């Protein structure tokens, strides 16, 4: 009889450090990044989860897939006390850049802050279970070999147990029946342009080309402490929503938020533009050998790797206007252009007719309705890429030969069929709250469970479940998501 693994898939844990108190007086601004405090760390729930899935396997071996955004490198704000490398002013305000030695430091911080969970994970592996790590967009720095080595060394496994830990490039095929990937490769704002070789050579230092969305998170969201980056509703609002939010929360905690937004947006645009001209790192091995390694890690062939790469969406960094619109810089440039143009016309008329420069405000006021019409017509496309694409799922199914595809990334748990393809999303475990006070929790702690069927152990069935670590009336039992 074929022995199949039980597979548990979780994603979007967003493990990071607690917010260092160096930028804001927490006593004066208690809501500043409240979601990023130890109060909302999920280590205990994760430890209970590991115990629970082993019990569900009833003696069978479990394959645990950490499907992207497990570490949130972008949110780490801790700095080394005695750095061996230069740290810029911008890094002190927005976190360390994705260079190998700095990524090692951030990984070490996360491992130490969540040491209890990783000790439990090590014991889980020592009992014969398997661990597969798929990098997402927030932990693209897992591609650094030294970061992977640090992670494995931290678990303190013997040589035999280390064989049960696997890092893959961006996807994994489990038991020939399920394709698993984080999903950011189908999101133009968050895709890693080349997960086979994501590295750049930056002044003889190895760095990683970050997706646009992650650069924006670092430069903007890390400086906007009252907006929770884990829930889109918390930071994407209409104009009236922003105004209400400003007078309710920001006027005391961050009254100069317009300035913060402006320089952060410009820094984001500058960073992604500079990366477009950066020199890619040349691999020491041939591309054929590298594709072979990727294929072996992911349980497939180099041909499948190539075909899946062809299905990547075009990155937003190739569309500067799209980036400008998402950062609201198009509206800023429009206002500046209108002001300069009107000033030029009025100042010219002043030289001939001696009119007052206050006439500048007349045409500017007349332009307000047109500007508001344009501003309302510009909509963010972020939500558009959160919906599954039936044609894409069909192509991925045809390329890999599977009929089940599991994503993460969107933080939206789902289980549905698109034609003949079964699609699941493992949801999120992140500190997702829809309010600043962190009292309204977004649905989380969901996971995908794939197990051999009792009537036919050679076939596996997938379920979307939600794990609860609370113990009110019954033990930590999951319940199925409809």
Features:
482 residues; 38% helix; five-stranded mixed β-sheet; single chain; alpha/beta; 2 domains
Give a description of the structure.
- The protein is α/β, with parallel strands linked by helices and 482 residues long.
- The chain has two domains: 423 residues, no CATH class; 49 residues, no CATH class.
- Helix content is 38%, strand content 14%.
- It is built from 15 helices and 15 strands.
- A seven-stranded mixed β-sheet has the order 4-3-2-1-13-14-15. Strands 5-6-10-12-11 form a five-stranded mixed β-sheet. A three-stranded antiparallel β-sheet has the order 8-7-9, with no helix packed on it.
- α3 runs parallel beside α5 and α7 runs antiparallel to α9.
- The two termini are 32 Å apart.
Quickly count the helices: 15
The spatial strand order of the largest sheet comes to 4-3-2-1-13-14-15
Number of strands: 15
Could you report the average pLDDT, rounded to the nearest whole number?
88
Indicate how many domains the architecture comprises: 2
What's the Cα radius of gyration?
24 Å
Which percent range describes the beta-strand content?
A: 5-15%
């Amino acid at each position: 009889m074929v022995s199949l693994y039980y597979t548990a898939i979780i994603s979007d844990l967003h493990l990071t450090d607690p917010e260092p108190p160096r930028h804001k007086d927490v006593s004066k601004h208690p809501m500043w990044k409240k979601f990023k405090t130890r109060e909302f760390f999920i280590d205990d729930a994760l430890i209970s989860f590991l115990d629970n899935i082993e019990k569900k396997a009833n003696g069978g071996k479990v394959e645990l897939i950490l499907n992207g955004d497990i570490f949130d490198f972008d949110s780490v704000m801790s700095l080394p006390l005695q750095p061996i490398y230069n740290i810029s002013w911008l890094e002190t305000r927005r976190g360390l850049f994705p260079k190998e030695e700095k990524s090692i430091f951030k990984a070490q911080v996360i491992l130490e802050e969540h040491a209890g969970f990783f000790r439990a994970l090590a014991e889980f592996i020592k009992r014969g279970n398997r661990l597969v790590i798929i990098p997402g967009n927030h932990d693209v720095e897992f591609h650094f070999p030294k970061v992977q080595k640090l992670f494995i060394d931290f678990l303190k496994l013997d040589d035999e147990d280390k064989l049960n830990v696997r890092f893959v490039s961006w996807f994994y095929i489990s038991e020939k029946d399920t394709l698993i990937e984080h999903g950011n490769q189908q999101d133009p704002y968050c895709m890693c342009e080349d997960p086979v070789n994501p590295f750049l050579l930056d002044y003889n230092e190895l760095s990683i080309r970050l997706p646009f969305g992650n650069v924006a998170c670092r430069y903007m969201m890390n400086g906007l402490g009252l907006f929770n980056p884990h829930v889109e509703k918390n930071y994407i609002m209409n104009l009236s929503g922003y105004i209400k939010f400003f007078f309710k929360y920001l006027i005391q905690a961050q009254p100069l938020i317009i300035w913060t937004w402006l320089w952060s947006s410009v820094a984001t645009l500058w960073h992604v533009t500079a990366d477009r001209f950066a020199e890619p790192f040349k691999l020491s091995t041939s591309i054929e050998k590298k594709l072979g390694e990727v294929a072996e890690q992911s349980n497939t062939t180099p041909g499948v790797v190539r075909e899946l790469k062809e299905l990547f969406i075009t990155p937003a960094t190739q569309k500067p206007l799209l980036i400008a619109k998402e950062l609201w810089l198009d509206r800023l440039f429009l206002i500046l252009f209108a002001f300069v143009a009107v000033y030029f016309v009025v100042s010219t008329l002043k030289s001939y007719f001696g009119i007052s420069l206050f006439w500048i405000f007349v045409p500017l006021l007349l332009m307000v309705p047109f500007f508001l019409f344009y501003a309302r017509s510009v909509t963010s496309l972020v939500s558009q890429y959160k919906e599954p694409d039936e044609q894409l799922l069909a192509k991925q199914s045809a390329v890999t030969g599977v009929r089940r595809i599991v994503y993460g990334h969107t933080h939206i748990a789902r289980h549905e069929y698109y034609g003949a393809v079964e699609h699941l999303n493992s949801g999120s475990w992140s500190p997702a709250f829809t309010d600043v006070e962190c009292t309204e929790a977004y649905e989380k702690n969901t996971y995908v469970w794939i197990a051999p069927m009792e009537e036919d152990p050679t076939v596996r069935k997938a379920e979307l479940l939600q794990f609860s670590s609370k113990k009110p009336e019954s033990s930590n039992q999951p319940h199925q998501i409809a």
